[in-house]
Amino acid sequence: MSMALTARIWTLEEMVEKTSDLPSIPAATLAVMREAESPTGSAHSVARCLMQDQALTTRVLRLANSAFYGLSRQVVEIPEAVVVLGMRTIRNLCLLASTYPWMNKPLAGYDLPAGALWAHSFGVGVGAQLVAQRTGQQRADLAFTAGLLHNIGKVVINLWIDRKLAHLHALALEENLTFDEAERRVLGYDHAEVGAHLAEQWNLPKILVEAIRFHHAPNAADNRLVDSVHVADLLVTSLGIGTGGDGLRYEFAEESLERLGLTPADLDVLACELATAYDKHEKLFEEPAG
Amino acid sequence: MFCESLASCVAVCAYDPVRRVAGIAHVMVPAPVATSGDCGPAADAAGAFDALLEAMRRAGAEGNSIRLALVGGAQVLQRDGDPNPLIDLGWRNAEACLAQSSAHSLPVVGQDFGGSVSRHLRLDAGTGEVVVQTSLRGETALCTLGG
Known about the structure:
The complex is a heterodimer. By secondary structure, chain A is mainly α. Chain A has helices spanning 12-18, 27-37, 43-50, 54-64, 78-85, 87-103, 116-135, 140-149, 152-161, 165-174, 179-187, 191-201, 206-213, 224-238, 254-260, 264-281. Chain B is α+β, with helices and mostly antiparallel strands. Chain B has helices at 45-58, 89-103, and strands at residues 2-6, 10-16, 21-27, 67-72, 108-113, 119-123, 129-134, 138-144. Chain B has a four-stranded antiparallel sheet, with no helix packed on it. Chain B has a four-stranded mixed sheet with strand order 3-2-4-5, covered by helices on one side. Chain B is globular. Chain B starts with a strand and ends with a strand. The interface between A and B is medium-sized, with 35 and 35 residues.
């Protein structure tokens, strides 16, 4: 089959290098992530890192005061917010505030309108957190982070497959490929690999890099965090939350359920719980009442 | 009336062409599940059919005039083409909705199930026309529930 997409192939590194509008995470957020995980990190040091960035500080305070947390009184300073909500929650709020601007944009290459990638990523974060809480095999806050970031590679690939979605679909249908296989066939790599490469460039922890790289191939990693993201991705995609043109054209590894100690029947329960939790978490973006 | 981004869920489009009463229910799971929180009474097929039909009757529809179209039930990719009922929520949702249609003796005029695609649908409350849109096929008219 002749593919218009194959006219010029770059290596993954070249593609990332040539992408002028690369997603980024502010230095203050990366510093907060490091401090929150460091054995020497403290509420004071996390607050100090965050306050280096005034715009981020404002956005995190707005999230901290959202209806979701239902604080009895408004927090107006970051040190207080870190004490009230905890370092790990503040870390995730930094990440939400930092990724929203570029995750909320439309991705024509994946037939995702504005807000859809964000909704899907946020949903997988919430779902992975639910799976982690149910199985008790990983930290729920880390599962949220991994879920939120799992599809960052799509933001990069989108710029290169823009308006070529039909070609990828045709290839996938003709050769009975999953969508990530079609990406690899055409580009030489898929959105998961590109995302992992970006995460490495940001110096994110190895466990998060793995969760991004193997979220469609959990059997290649011995990492329950990967399994949690894989299961959450299936649920969120199945529920149609930010599901794009690639749809459900992915394989599901049932082994992930076994490794997590879940049964197929648990999927229905998790799907319902996820839909409820997703609606509840959306309150994060609502202004506090009163 | 619209239903956007349907994947494994099934949209039950119902229409009474005589009284021109239309409604859509969204089925998330085939059967009720015991969750730690409130999943809503109409998340499963039986609950969704009951809630939809009750709402339509309240709006003036007659039960024996109602006609249905069922859309959604997408599945993760199966290499051999056969759904895996254990994990395949979409396939089970579709089966459950067909069973509910029979149980309520309601004719299914059009159905568009399966595949690995996300669907958007539109039900015209004036004519009963059901239009389905996917990335692959674009917009296509599925059926008219208007008689």
